Amino acid sequence: MFHDGHLLTLEKAKKLRDRLVVLVNSDARIRFRKGNNRPIIPQKSRARILEALRIVDEVVLGTSKGPVPEDLDTIRLVKPDKWVLHRDPTPEEEAVKDLGIEIVRFPYIKSPSGLNTTKIIDKIRKGDKVNIVTKKKVGEYK
Q1: What is the pLDDT along the chain (142 residues), one digit of tens a residue?
Q2: Helix (H, G, I), strand (E, B), or coil: what is residue 106?
Q3: Domains contained in the chain, CATH given
Q4: Under the phi-then-psi rule, with left for phi > 0, alpha for psi from -120 to 50, and beta for the rest, what region is 4?
Q5: Run of H or E residues at 73
Q6: CB–CB of 77/41 below 8 Å?
Q7: DSSP symbols for 3-44
Q8: Residues facing 105 on adjacent strands
Q9: φ/ψ of residue 61, rounded to 5
Q10: Before 107, cis peptide (omega within 30)?
Q11: Alpha carbon distance 36, 33 (integer Å)
Q12: What are phi and psi of 119, to 5 degrees?
């Protein structure tokens, strides 16, 4: 589920280059990494959300179903000079380095709302209100 922490990560990635291409993990890959109750939003819907963001220049769909680096073919086609990762290691990392692509790892970026996907899902399951409004105004997150 897309939240303000994801947006901050994308904004930080965009600052590295003029063009931001986002690879959207397959539903099977998300299930493998996060469990059978995930993803909440299907891959194509997640891709459409990202395509609507003006900081995202292109969205590509990942095909990997698990720990096998199937997305390497997609990465080879896109030919990025940098590959931005969250804190979680990925099976493709060494193979991507072997392609001459610089790995840029961002540390955990805390969502200004204090929420992450798991917290949002837990609140919804409990019937709690999900308040994603922060005291900051648009543009103050930079």
Answers
A1: 788 888 999 999 999 999 999 999 899 988 988 889 899 999 999 999 999 999 999 999 988 776 656 678 888 888 899 988 876 677 778 888 899 999 998 887 778 788 788 888 888 888 887 766 555 555 554 4
A2: coil
A3: 4-109 (3.40.50.620)
A4: alpha
A5: helix 72-78
A6: no
A7: -HHHHHHHHHHHTTSS--EEEEPPHHHHHHHH-TT--SS-HH
A8: 85
A9: -95, 125
A10: no
A11: 9
A12: -65, -40
Nearest in space to 71 (alpha carbons), one of 29, 9, 21: 29
**Model pTM score:** 0.80
Asked if 38 and 52 touch (Cβ cutoff 8 Å), the reply is no
Residue type, 128: D
Phi/psi for 82 (5° steps) reads -135, 145
Whether the CB-CB separation of 113 and 132 falls below 8 Å is answered with yes
Residue 47 in tokens: 């891709």
Contact between residue 103 and residue 85 where contact means Cβ atoms under 8 Å apart: yes
DSSP symbol at 134? -
Q: Residue 100 has which token pair?
A: 């001459």
